[in-house]
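FAQ: What does the model actually see?

It sees only this:
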Amino acid sequence: MNTNNEVSYNDFKGDLANSVREADLLLAHAVKQGLNIKQDTINKIVQSKKALQKNQLTTATEADFWLAFNSIAKLVSPVSIKSLKATTDSFGRRRGGLPFLAKSKRKVSLARKAVIQYKRIFIFTLAFLLFAQVFALVGGTATTSIDSLTAKVKVKWAELQETRDSKAEEAAEKIDDLEEELLNYHNRIDASYRVLEKWNNFWKAILNPTRIVLSTRRYLTDSEATHKHMSVQIAQFALQALQLYLLPLLYGLLGASTYTLRIISLEIKTLMYSSESDIRYRLRLYLGAVAGMAVGWFFTPETTPSIVKSLSPLALAFLAGYNVEVLFAAMDKFISTFSTEVPKTP
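And it is asked to produce this:
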């Protein structure tokens, strides 16, 4: 055991030894950044380091060290020990390489790991969003095609009936043309119904692989038309759920991921990233997803500022995820209108 205020520099468990190493790290960073460091501060840190190595640290030297440590910490602020260690590979953990060759694994800083992690989240969110967007586009196109073609069929059918009732000489040729157009419309409608049926089966298989939910085929009591109408209604319900809930949630999550990648790159550049930053970023992702889905509940065309009225709901969800503070500010303002105390009447 060391006596007379002596501390071994190799004793890494000692608080003072760790502090000397941290002060040395801050001093090296300040020098690399070209900061104006007092000569007295450098001397005190170096002397404390040498005194620890020789087990000759005295009370006066230790007191001078703490003053110098405080001075250098203020000089490099907002950079801190935690942020320097988090952004430096030499302080990270080993990863990669062959599992049976420990030396082949290189150290990776916490900041680099965070970048890899949030890049994966961003790519996964973007891929899933594109899939959901294309999936909704297919279903929406099929239902819209059925509606528009059905309307055209009604018009052509009325025109055909009117032509048949007329006794014009060119009526026969016009009837043939109209019947051909009607046949083409019916074929396209049947094709759209087939696409819609496969579309419905796809999302039902994903949500319910055990097929517990009753299929529309079980309700075929009258004709095939009944089944077709039910397929359209079910597809419309699914599309509404996609447009109102899933897609806004994904756009909000994508906005939050974009913000996270942008901010984390700035923090790494300025050496301000620390382990506590990761907690903020994770919470930001959760809040961004909720904000993307909930922004439509608080902003209507009447209450939306004119500058964003031209934006689509999904674009608004992305912006809400990117900047969740806007939504929360609106929520706080909304709540404050109810929390204001009503003056008591005498």
